[in-house]
Amino acid sequence: MRMRFTTLVFASAFLAAFASVSHAEVLTLVQGLKLATTNSRLIRISEREEEMARQDALISRSKLLPDVNASAGYTSYAHQVGARFDSLQAPEYEQSFPAYSLSVEQTLYDFKKNASLYEASKIGIEIKRTDTRRIRNIVGLSFAMAYFDLLESNRMVDVARSEVERVESHLKDTTNLYDQGVVTKNDVLQAQVRLADSRQRLISAKNISAVDASQINNFLLRPLNSPVQPEDIDPSLLESRAIFDLEKAWDEAIRSRPELQIVDATLKAQDFEEKAKKADYFPQFFVRGQYDYTDDRYLIHESNALVLFGMSINLYKGGSTKAGIAKIEYGKERLREQKKELTDEIRLEVKRYILDSETAKDRVAATRDAVEQAEENLRINRVKYTEGVGTATDVLDAVTLLTVAETNYYRSLYDLMRAEAGVLYATGRDISEVYQ
Question: Could you report how far apart the first and last alpha carbons of the chain are, in Å?
């Protein structure tokens, strides 16, 4: 009795665990975007690069602050150091002695060389921050596309399953009519072949859905075989908002795309770098304070201090300063050309996504009516076949026609979703915020 009870408990626990694995928690697009943009390794890498840029700025700022150095040493000679005056000898230093030194040096004016480099490094932080935003939006777009792919593949599984059920129903009708001697064996064989073909398509649709689910898990850094149950999106809401004005979209894209913002910031940073490079033509003024102490009884003053106001200028570097300035100028010209090319590419990308969204919206409206018509066509042909005035081929053709209509409808629907996401990304809008 106890063994039987233990077996029942184990079986109940196994079934509960199986049920928990088989029934996944519903994943919404908003939740998925939040998880994907939070867990993305690409974003983490970009954030680390952003922190590195902050440290570069601190390194550049350090050149604006005093340079403080301290040193200590202990000297020990093998022989006493001294001087000879005819027959007299006098020691100059003790044979062994310690010495200490502290110095502080501050640049007074360098024609804004270090200040310009610091400003350029601060812009570098902003560039990295903008690049992180760009990568986060790319990750968001990629996840949204994968999410819509999974919704579509799940719908394709439903369509394939419905086709199998319709053919099975037709096979049942055909078998009954054959048993009654109303139709020939050929109708039964034809239905059996079509059923096998439909089941094969159902298997392929399930495999595609499983791959798409694994893609979602990959974005979320979860085990690839974890069950995923995406929440579908209301088509009516999607169709009502999938309206875009091309000129306004272009203006928004030029204003908001992070790629163009990065180019503008890089040009500004290179202006500061050029200013810093030109400062090499001019002198640098500095002040240095130093304190020295040597523990030596032969010195008149064991401790001493000095203050030095100085100037340094490089008279000749072999033309490297001039070449460095020219290199920066060429780099700025290259960036300006790249910005023009990038602007054209962004405009083309925006137009392509808008045209895709308009085409998909028209397809949704057209294919929705086609599904209703195909359903009615199948109903009529099934009635005609059972009444003996229709053929099995007509019924199977009607089943195929309905499957094609449903497939076209769902594909156009999710094409519309993907095109809308593409427009939002192309115009520079934050995907994660839009789908809140």
Answer: 56
